[in-house]
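Posting for a labmate who doesn't have an account.
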Amino acid sequence: MKRLKMSRGIHAVHCLVYGFAKHFFLYVLIIVAVMAATSFSMYLGKENTVTATLTLNYEEAAKGLYPNSTRFSISLIKSQEVMERVIEMAGLENITPEQLSNHITAQGVNVHNIQGNSDSNYRIATSYSITYRKNPEIKRISARDILELIIQAYKEEFFENYAYGKATLTCDIEPYESLEYLEIAEMFKREGNKLYRHLNSMMKDNGTFLSEKTQETFSSLKKRAYNFLNIDLEKFSSYVKQSGLSKDKAGYISKLEYQNHLMDISYQKLMGEYSIRLGAIDLYDAALTAVVLVPTVDTSLEFYMSRTKVAIDYQAELAESASSSANDYNEKMNENKHVMEMLDLAGASSASAKQKAEEMIQTMKAELEDITNKTVVTNQEYIRYKTKNYLSTSYVEKSLSDMLSIKWAILAGGFVTFAIGCWILILESRRKEEQ
């Protein structure tokens, strides 16, 4: 029995060798063609699919936040805003943001960069794998180039809207033709103070940062804003007051009188509140106003005796607030009275005086707009500088053997060889049956 099986085995091998040798070149050609086709098809798929790793390198990333402390989401890379930027940068046509985003996948990777609480299942990735599979609508640009544009567009969106708290900084100079000269001065003062506060804050953050575009630092811009408020604007206000300039003297005096009337009502109310609260303080029994101490712990968990506020303390604070507000109203009313006195003493405003005032207004307007515009540009450059290392990107490079899928090609060749062998044995079996 064993000899019979061995004989059959030897016969089968003989048939395979003979059958394969009979059409050797044809079978080799078929095997090589299948291997080449497998390698080529796999190559096309890998050539049109690229992957990059995006790593977040800022402190808030470990908390699942953007640098501006809003909630982070990697889905931003597939957002319409980012896709529209890519389409515009690449000059693509006949493709929608949705079609482009459908070929992008993004997921958290790199377990060593995942932060989490050991007591919970919540995990936050700080590295992400971004894969792009080329759209069939895109012909002339490679998948790698498109992915690079996607990363670039994402970074632009990230830096512009999520990397740093955006300051709303605009020069809101409203139409002032109908305003009086001193009202124009108040408008400039309001906008100048807004700009000065912003520059003061930025100077504390980094006063020496030099903008390449404006050649200004936050310190130099703050100095310009200070000079605008305390030199240019004060000079204009003094000139208007001393000259008694007005576009409509009677109308302006009437407006100031009405403002003083309203402020006087508020002043009287505040002074009444102040008197009532002082009276309430006098009514308190001395025993009730004694210092109250309660045991408290500090940040080091050490006990100490803390003084608590009693009702008289609250009454004193409210009385002081009412007095301060009343003094502000009184100061403004006295300023308005002084302006009305200067207007009464002055004659009709000359054309030359008005012309000089208009020139000063135009100079101040140009200066304030220039400082504001340069502050905006310097802000943008500083944000770029401060956040330039917040995102890092590395592209997954594929070896030639990986691109050609050598293993898959060999596997396909082996499968075809096996199929040919089976085919030869089937043909040999049929030939014997026919005999």
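Reply:
Got it, the structure tokens are right above this. Residues 111-120 have pLDDT under 50 and may be disordered.
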